[in-house]
Specification:
It is a single chain. The protein has 241 residues and is an alpha/beta fold. It folds into two domains: 161 residues, Rossmann fold; 75 residues, no CATH class. Helix content is 36%, strand content 25%. Helix 2 runs parallel beside helix 4 and helix 4 packs parallel to helix 5. The mean pLDDT is 90.
């Protein structure tokens, strides 16, 4: 279980995260939404230990979260890979670093689930589409069977059709693998459709944290209401009669 307990992050004299507390069980999905600059990516970096917490702590089953080997799916799929290496070498890197043994059929099963042709892995990042690169990024995140996967705007670089398809693949694989998923996104429609809970982050503070459907139907703050109103206006959410 992921526990983020009263975490704050300070950069110089500026506090970018203020007293953040969230929890996440295996198999659950938490979507973190909010405007640009709200601190969403800083939260991911704090969970991963890439930025130090000035207060609070992050644990997985009461241990430092790094000991569970969490995985990250980055926003820009092509830039997430070493351009000089084949995608296959990049995919297997987490296994090599951890020194673990992966079942011989696991790569085949994940490729099938993500609809990745095996031959695609012998190409370099510049030789595949953005959608293909994003699916390979998800493959790399899952190959070592992490209990926690962090997604930083996983659909933002994709076209609408590929967004929907990739979101469905992530959800399907989570059902099979049972990992906990924290998803940072601007897409409230995606969050409402696939997350169990939604956390609304604004200026480094959590303004709301509630079940996804409860938030969409009855946000508790003016800012949450403004996010929902914008999503309805754009067609990302549909009103229930």
């Amino acid at each position: 279980m992921l526990e983020v307990s009263q975490v704050s992050v300070r950069r110089g004299s500026t506090v970018t995260l203020h007293d953040i507390s969230i929890s996440l069980e295996p198999g659950q999905t938490l979507a973190v939404v909010g405007e640009s600059g709200a601190g969403k990516s800083t939260l991911i970096n704090a969970i991963l230990g890439l930025v130090p917490c000035s207060a609070g702590q992050v644990t997985w089953d009461s241990l430092p979260v790094r000991q569970c080997w969490p995985a990250l799916v980055m926003q820009e799929p092509r830039s997430a890979f070493n351009p000089r290496l084949s995608l296959r070498r990049s995919v297997m890197e987490p296994v090599t670093v951890r020194g673990t043994v992966v079942d011989a059929g696991r790569l085949d099963r994940l490729c099938a689930g993500l609809e990745i042709a095996q031959g695609l892995l012998d190409r370099r990042p510049a030789e595949v589409s953005i959608g293909q690169a994003q699916r390979v990024g998800i493959l790399r995140a899952l190959i070592a069977a992490p209990p926690l996967v962090l997604f930083d705007e996983p659909l933002s670089a994709l076209d609408a059709v590929t967004q929907k398809h990739t979101a469905q693949l992530i959800s399907q694989l989570q059902g099979e693998e049972g990992f906990a998923a924290l998803i940072v996104t601007h897409d409230l429609g995606y969050a409402a459709a696939f997350a169990d809970e939604i956390a609304v982050l604004r200026a480094g503070r959590i303004e709301e944290l509630t079940a996804a459907q409860d938030f969409v139907q009855a946000p508790q703050t003016p800012y949450g209401q403004s996010l929902c109103d914008a999503a309805f206006a754009l067609g990302a959410l549909e009103r229930v009669a």
